[in-house]
């Protein structure tokens, strides 16, 4: 068990290393650097000035050296004026060092956001907190509803309840966030006027009025999927011998479902719920942009739109970490829940 | 001048009437399928359940809408008639006396025509991208599952690498206007579009290598047709000027294939690992068949059931991905009538007008729903066997 987890964590670290290298390569493509330089300098700057901005801020150093600096295995260099030899900070708004220091991700320094003019940590972690709140409510709504639908549908396979709920879950998996978001906004905000079509005010305080729409929009796409997996698992369990035995010894249907079937049927959906996190990350981006909620997804779009290199790298690191850690938890948790599975 | 309107009932009747070629096609295909459903194998069995009929019906509806888009839609999807700006559904266009059935959007274009033409973009890109993703996933997944070992470790690591990316981040990195100045999209296209040629060449080679009369014809056709399409798509140098793709469409296409082929890879790999333990594979190995013959002619046909179901779901998922791209304004031209872009434009103005938002959302949802119902019904039917 221990060596399994150790090996998996090794793979996770290797994956993160490869992915950040790919992202680093893509954000440092020539057109993207031009975009960054244009957005960071005054209007109508000449090509030479853009170039000098890039050189002056260290963007023209060797690719692998800069990646090493970001990672923290090479010292971060301050800007040296070639004429005077005086060193200055790279970005004054981030308290960058004036002497070469090891200050990268490994040392806990995520770099400097050129778009928000602050450190990446100061921008990213509050945003993650805001998204965490959103995620919490989404999961609190999605998981119980999906499990309930799945169990009700899978309890009696082929019944009318089953067919109705199955079609409903299929319909919900056919509704991406940008579709359900528009439809819910039309119904609840424009037409009925019950809810607020924007969650911009939710940063100050979450209310039912401003937070319901993002939560249900984000929840609906995953609900159908989890419900279908629960149903499949429930259907399988209900055909097992021990369920028949329990029925034949005279237990009522409800107690068979609750005492015997449920615990066995909920193992598979656990994995599915954990593996929903990567999908939820994409959904979070859409929902946060649509409802103007200042969280992780909103930060990611801003970073990508402005080619904010360090912030985008931080965002990818966080999202890749979430994806891989949830996969690990789902594997380990599955082994715990199902004693027949042994990890090796 | 005051815009004149027709009433809601006339709008409904008018819309249904505009779709007449679609209805004709639908009735013909459904009728023929229904009459001969006993002889049509798995496809015929779809007509045994309500879910299957609904799935086939919805998919065919959008297919015919895409085919007959120019007949169905009364207006050019890009034409702007300034007087019709933000008009409500049922407004009459004064010069042609034709009707804006679903009203006009903020740039005074006909929402109905845009929805109809949007189906064309989706129904070309989504199935084609899924097809390429299937080719890539199968060509790499079969050896990974069959041989195992180092090749499996390497390919699985690469697949997990791509899958660990949140899709949206991948798109923001791969589908930006700037990236068109670099050779990356073309290199990726060049790589991905090679897979179908490799796949079919190996497919025919393994089967007919002792029958040169068939082999040379089939290989020749594969290489000529494949090379022709390849030169048109990747280098845009089709000698006959038929195969052509816009650079930004190529970019989208490549990104979508890139995002969805690891999923296919994982499924094919899993299926291969399962199927290679069967007796008929052992029999083929004993006969001395080559590994690629076993993979392509013994394992792949027996994995087709789950793959067909997955392909249906994946077309739906690709449609959602295209919508996501449109919603974030990535890749597609800003005036493009595809559903994602239309939803993006309309959702910004929901406070004042809701009518431009609803047709594309419902169109996208119904198409994906149709594909999901189709997949569900296919799964049910193939499980029965």
From TrEMBL, chain A:
Residues 128-330 form the ABC transmembrane type-1 domain. GO terms for cellular component: plasma membrane. Pfam families: BPD_transp_1. The chain crosses the membrane at residues 12-29, 134-155, 176-194, 206-227, 266-291, 311-337. Keywords: Cell membrane, Membrane, Transmembrane, Transmembrane helix, Transport. It comes from the Bacteria. This is ABC transporter permease. It comes from Mesorhizobium tamadayense.
TrEMBL record, chain B:
It is a multi-pass membrane protein. One of its GO terms (biological process) is transmembrane transport. GO terms for cellular component: plasma membrane. InterPro entries: BP-dependent_transpt_permease, MetI-like, MetI-like_sf. The chain crosses the membrane at residues 20-37, 49-69, 121-142, 154-174, 186-208, 215-235, 250-268, 311-333, 353-375. Its main location: membrane. Residues 119-375 form the ABC transmembrane type-1 domain. The keyword Transmembrane applies. Keywords: Cell membrane, Membrane, Transmembrane, Transmembrane helix, Transport. It is found in: Cell membrane. It comes from the Bacteria. Belongs to the binding-protein-dependent transport system permease family. This is ABC transporter permease. The lineage of its organism: Bacteria, Pseudomonadati, Pseudomonadota, Alphaproteobacteria, Hyphomicrobiales.
């Amino acid at each position: 068990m221990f060596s399994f987890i150790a090996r998996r964590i090794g793979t996770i670290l290797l994956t993160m290393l490869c992915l950040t290298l790919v992202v680093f390569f893509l954000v440092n493509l020539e057109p993207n650097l031009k975009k960054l330089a244009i957005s960071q300098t005054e209007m109508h700057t000449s090509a030479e000035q853009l170039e000098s901005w890039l050189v002056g801020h260290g963007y023209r150093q060797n690719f692998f050296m800069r990646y090493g600096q970001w990672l923290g295995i090479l010292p971060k260099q301050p800007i040296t004026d070639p004429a005077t030899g005086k060193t200055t900070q790279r970005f004054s708004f981030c308290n960058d060092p004036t002497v070469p220091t090891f200050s990268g991700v490994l040392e806990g320094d995520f770099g400097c956001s050129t778009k928000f003019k602050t450190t990446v940590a100061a921008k990213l972690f509050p945003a993650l907190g805001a998204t965490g709140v959103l995620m919490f409510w989404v999961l609190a709504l999605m998981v119980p509803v999906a499990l309930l639908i799945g169990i009700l549908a899978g309890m009696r396979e082929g019944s009318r309840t089953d067919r109705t709920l199955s079609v409903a879950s299929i319909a919900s998996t056919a509704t991406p966030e940008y579709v359900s978001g528009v439809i819910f906004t039309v119904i609840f905000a424009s037409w009925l006027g019950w809810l607020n079509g924007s969650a911009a005010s939710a940063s100050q305080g979450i209310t039912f009025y401003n937070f319901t729409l993002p939560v249900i929009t984000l929840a609906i796409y995953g609900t159908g999927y989890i419900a279908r997996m629960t149903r499949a698992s429930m259907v399988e369990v209900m055909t097992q011998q021990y369920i028949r035995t329990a029925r034949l010894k005279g237990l009522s249907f409800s107690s068979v479902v609750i005492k015997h079937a449920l615990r066995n049927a909920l193992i598979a959906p656990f994995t599915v719920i954990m593996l929903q996190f990567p999908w939820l990350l994409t959904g979070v981006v859409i929902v946060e942009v649509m409802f103007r909620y200042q969280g992780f997804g909103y930060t990611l779009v801003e970073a990508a739109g402005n080619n904010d290199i360090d912030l985008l790298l931080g965002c990818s690191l966080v999202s890749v970490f979430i994806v891989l850690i949830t996969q690990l938890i789902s594997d380990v948790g599955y082994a715990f829940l199902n004693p027949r599975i042994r990890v090796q | 001048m005051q815009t004149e309107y027709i009433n809601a009932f006339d709008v409904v009747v008018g819309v249904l009437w505009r779709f007449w070629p679609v209805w004709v096609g639908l009735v013909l295909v459904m009728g023929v399928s229904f009459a001969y459903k006993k002889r049509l194998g798995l496809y015929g069995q779809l007509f045994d359940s309500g879910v299957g009929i609904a799935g086939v019906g919805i998919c065919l509806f959008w297919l015919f809408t895409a085919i007959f888009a120019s007949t169905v839609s009364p207006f050019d999807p890009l034409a702007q008639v300034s007087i019709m700006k933000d008009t409500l559904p049922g407004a009459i266009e004064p010069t042609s006396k034709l009707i804006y059935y679903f009203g006009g959007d903020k740039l005074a274009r006909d929402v109905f025509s845009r929805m109809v033409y949007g189906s064309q973009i989706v129904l070309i890109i989504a199935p084609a991208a899924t097809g390429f993703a299937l080719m890539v996933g199968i060509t790499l997944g079969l050896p990974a599952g069959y041989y195992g070992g180092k090749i499996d470790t390497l390919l699985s690591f690469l697949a997990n690498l791509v899958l660990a990316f949140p899709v949206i981040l991948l798109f923001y990195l791969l589908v930006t206007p700037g990236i068109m100045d670099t050779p990356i999209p073309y290199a990726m296209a060049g790589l991905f579009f090679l897979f179908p040629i490799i796949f079919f060449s190996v497919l025919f080679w393994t089967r007919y290598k002792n029958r040169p009369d068939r082999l040379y014809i089939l290989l020749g056709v594969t290489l000529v047709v494949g090379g022709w399409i390849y030169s048109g798509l990747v280098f845009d140098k089709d000698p006959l000027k038929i195969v052509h793709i816009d650079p930004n469409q190529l970019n989208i296409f490549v990104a979508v294939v890139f995002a969805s082929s690891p999923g296919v890879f994982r499924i094919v790999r899993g299926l291969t690992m399962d199927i290679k333990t069967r007796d008929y594979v052992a029999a083929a190995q004993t006969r001395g068949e080559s590994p690629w013959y076993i993979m392509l002619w013994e394992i792949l046909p027996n994995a087709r059931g789950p793959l067909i179901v997955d392909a249906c779901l994946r077309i739906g998922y690709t449609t959602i991905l295209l919508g996501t791209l449109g919603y974030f304004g990535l890749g597609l031209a800003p005036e493009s009538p595809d559903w994602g872009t239309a939803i993006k434009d309309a959702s910004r103005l929901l406070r004042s007008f809701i009518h431009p938002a609803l047709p594309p959302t419902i169109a996208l949802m119904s198409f994906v729903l149709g594909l999901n119902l189709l997949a569900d019904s296919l799964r049910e039917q193939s499980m029965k066997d």
